[in-house]
Amino acid sequence: MPELPEVETLRRELDRAVKNKIIKSVEVRWPKLVKPLSANIFSKKLIGQKIISTDRRAKILLLKLSKGDKKTRDGFLAIHLKMTGQLIFRPKKGRLVIGGHPLPPPPNLPLGQGEGLNSNLPHKHTHIIINFTDGSTLYFNDIRKFGWLKIFDAKSLEKLSAEFGPEALSDQFNLKKFQEILKKYPNQKIKQLLTDQKLIAGIGNIYADESCFCAGIRPTRLVKDIKLSEINKLLLCFKKTLKLAISKGGTSSDTYVKLNGQPGGFVPYLKVYGRQGEKCKKCQGLVEKIRLNGRGTHFCRSCQK
């Protein structure tokens, strides 16, 4: 699943692709993805809407619409890619612009050198089609159908936002706030806490592993056993790591590409994630992988205590 850097990368690229475009028509091929609205009502609410701006809350993309409810005038189209969701923007003329989870390329054609199943859109994994008045189209594909698109007014969006913790990169999320969260869960393993979206929004498996390595903290450490100096270092580490990942366009493993179809550039900067059995870049020991609360977890036994 894309984490904060990947979703933020998509948001910035989506902003350039669809901002100020007006929705002409909407086709919902898998109604469950737009619940609780029916496919017909979902489509009617979007037709004629102009995309004013883009935003992000945790791992959710937000498109602000020109027409909201009667009271607040604020309306938003929220998109969650979940495990296998993919956004594809096709301009009136030109090549596809792909973001999210790549579908497999044709035989003998490596990812990045072709558009795979997306060379012939729409296809069996295309579930939502949004056509704009300028002739361009935004497709939502999802092999596993876990993703969703929903329309929110300001009040309902605020309710959704309240389900998540503070944004990991926000100025409000400082050492004091971090300590407040940690004190509530002294017996929780630090990685488990970092990846709980209800406590901190945006950090997932990749960046929790990388941040713990940066801070020299083993991901299995209990919160109560971590010193204040280590807490401060961990805070600085995950903010630094997230910012660097955003600047590189995110991390592409086997599931993520940017909106322009190219892989994210953070992979060469990974210190432990996905490097099990390889030499640690710091001490030359071996990077290990264990299962922690159902998640693959990577660390260096020598560098992290």
Describe the structure.
- The protein is α+β, with helices and mostly antiparallel strands and 305 residues long.
- It folds into two domains: 158 residues, MutM-like, N-terminal (N-terminal domain of MutM-like DNA repair proteins, Alpha-Beta Barrel); 112 residues, Orthogonal Bundle (Helicase, Ruva Protein, domain 3).
- Helices cover 25% and strands 22% of the residues.
- The protein has seven helices and eleven strands.
- The protein has a five-stranded antiparallel β-sheet.
- α1 packs parallel to α7 and α6 packs across α7.
- It is elongated, with a radius of gyration of 20 Å.
- Its cofactor is Zn(2+).
- InterPro entries: FPG_cat (IPR012319), FPG_Glyclase (IPR020629), FPG_N (IPR035937), H2TH_FPG (IPR015886), Ribosomal_uS13-like_H2TH (IPR010979), Znf_DNA_glyclase/AP_lyase (IPR000214), Znf_FPG/IleRS (IPR010663).
- Belongs to the FPG family.
Provide the CATH superfamily of the largest domain: MutM-like, N-terminal
Shape: elongated
What's the number of extended β-strand segments?
A: 11
* Proportion of residues in helical segments: 25-40%
What tags apply to this protein structure?
305 residues; alpha+beta; N-terminal domain of MutM-like DNA repair proteins; Helicase, Ruva Protein, domain 3; 2 domains; five-stranded antiparallel beta sheet; four-stranded antiparallel beta sheet; 7 helices; 25% helix
